[in-house]
Write a structure and sequence with these properties.
The protein is an alpha+beta fold and 264 residues long. 52% of the residues lie in helices and 12% in strands. The N terminus is likely disordered.
Length: 264
């Protein structure tokens, strides 16, 4: 299990998001690397910063094999046994060990259910509460997973559309990330999020321009065209700028690349 100090630290930054963790270092490594977990973790922990009534005691409340821990920073951690979830550990990997945005409605449903359980804990049957909390965990996990996958699908479509637009307009010097975002009718911030974890949009445009230039320089049918003309066809405003960018990416100037690439 993770330490309470670590949980409290996470709760301070997990404003408006859900954090899902699993017990055991092996499970954490499997979730982060995508490798097989070997064996499933004993428990799944759902940590969410949500409005909790001040009257709720900051303590751990155990109900059978499930528990609720109310933190002093306005967050709640729900722990349920992994074996009792219909959504397996491997299915939950897209949610694990990262902040996942959740809707206000889902946060309110979670905090409301938690608040009612803890407020009436003295008169509720622990085994019945455990079933209730397990259902709550299922609801939150499935809803968050569906939203995560939906966003991933949208991001994939945006990425595909962005690359298609870039390819179609590589020869235009005015092509910038801002123009791409406008063409896709999304914000510039959202466009950069779509390419998060890889080359950013500006770098991708530059790389694709150089790749097109390499193809043109190595094409015998284009041997009669000057390097400056090819640079303009690839959207560079000047031959000097093109030569500098080409050398930085390829490791040699375009004239030398062409000399080695063209058949003798």
């Amino acid at each position: 299990m993770v330490s309470l100090d670590r949980v409290q630290h996470d709760a301070e930054v997990a404003n408006g998001v859900l954090v899902v963790r699993a017990s055991g270092a092996a499970a954490a490594k499997a979730a982060l690397t995508g490798s097989p977990p070997g064996r499933a973790p004993e428990s799944i922990q759902l940590l969410m910063r949500c409005p909790v009534h001040r009257s709720l005691p900051e303590d751990t409340h155990v109900f059978g094999d499930c528990s609720l821990h109310v933190l002093p920073v306005g967050a709640v951690m729900l722990t349920v046994p992994e074996a009792r979830l219909s959504t397996g550990f491997s299915d939950l990997r897209p949610l694990m060990f990262q902040p996942v945005e959740v809707s206000a409605g889902l946060r309110n449903a979670f905090s409301g259910a938690v608040g009612h359980v803890i407020a009436a804990r003295d008169v509720l049957d622990p085994a019945g509460v455990a079933h209730h909390l397990l259902g709550l965990a299922e609801l939150v996990l499935r809803s968050a997973l569906r939203e995560k996958l939906r966003r991933a699908d949208i991001a994939t479509e945006h990425r595909r559309a962005a690359l298609a637009h870039i390819r179609a307009h590589l020869g235009e010097p005015s092509l910038t990330p801002g123009h791409v975002a406008k063409a896709l009718n999304i914000s510039l911030r959202r466009l950069y999020q779509v390419f998060e974890g890889e080359q950013n949009v500006a770098e991708r445009i530059r790389t694709m321009r150089i790749e097109r230039a390499k193809a043109l320089l190595a094409d015998p049918a284009k041997a009669g065209r000057g390097v400056g003309e090819i640079s303009r066809d690839c959207g560079f405003v000047s031959a000097t700028h093109f030569s500098r960018a080409f050398r930085a990416l390829v490791g040699q100037p375009p004239t030398e690349y062409r000399r080695h690439a063209l058949p003798r």
